[in-house]
Amino acid sequence: MEMVEKADHAQAEMLKNFEEKINRGDAIEPKDRMPDGYRKHLIRQISQHAHSEVIGMQPEGNWITRAPSLRAKQILLAKIQDEGGHGLYLYSAAETLGISRDEMIALLHSGKAKYSSIFNYPTLTWADIGAIGWLVDGAAIVNQVSLQRTSYGPYSRAMVRICKEESFHQRQGYEIMAKMMKGTIDQQEMAQDAINRWWWPSLMMFGPHDSESPRSGDAVKWKIKRHTNDELRQKFIDKTVQQAEVIGLTIPDKDLKCNEATGHYDHGPIDWDEFYRVINGNGPCNKQRMDHHKKVHQDGAWVRAAAEAYRQKKEKQSLN
Prior knowledge:
The chain has 13 helices and two strands. The protein is mainly alpha-helical. The chain has a two-stranded antiparallel sheet with strand order 1-2. The longest helix has 29 residues, at 153-181. It is globular. 32% of the residues are buried.
């Protein structure tokens, strides 16, 4: 009984110290004691973020050989390379919480871990590459800028570099769309078709409405998130509507209008049935994305084995 009371007291003291650090705005570091709920939330969020960066390379990689110019090909290659690097930063940040990369990949392949549903849509035309850069990376920037101040130190520091590179990706996408809107009628129609298909999935990237998001409460309380899903979504809409107007694109929302009382844009209802359908594995490209990831992971097993053998060899040499 006495041991139980001591354990309870130690747990209460740990929670008190943790909450004081959070309230002061201090960063939580890997060696700090933290509640299990905080650790589990971060592992889920950071690993999902890492998976999204890596899976997100697939729809863009589909267009490397078909980019319309050498310049466009070079920029797209650089962008895809950045995304792979982002995944590595984030996997490394998650590993500081006590989970291995192999475990994270296994959870992804088993379907227990998720990635952003936006990457389960096909890239049908070159305009889709513009829409991904402008809308998808634009939405990511809105979310990730606030994550630079997240309470977990390794995650926060990883986001600083990622945000700088994502801003380049957003500009690349917007440039593609702007050029197409200055082109032929067919190119303009292609650009409009792309935004018609990618607008609503981009809004879904921020997650369910706050009232329907059970994890948001703890995330905000622990300052993992600095803003709620709806706050971030509204910020993205307000910024992007004006960008679309500049280049002559129409946002595919008949209910979209500026609310003079709030200073924000009101928007139409989001199809959450589609969101959950795609999240649960029934989107246009879910199977294709996961089958490709599994195949590449298996094909690369020899590389990982060789790297591990080299590490062990160097370790033995250092002991001699």
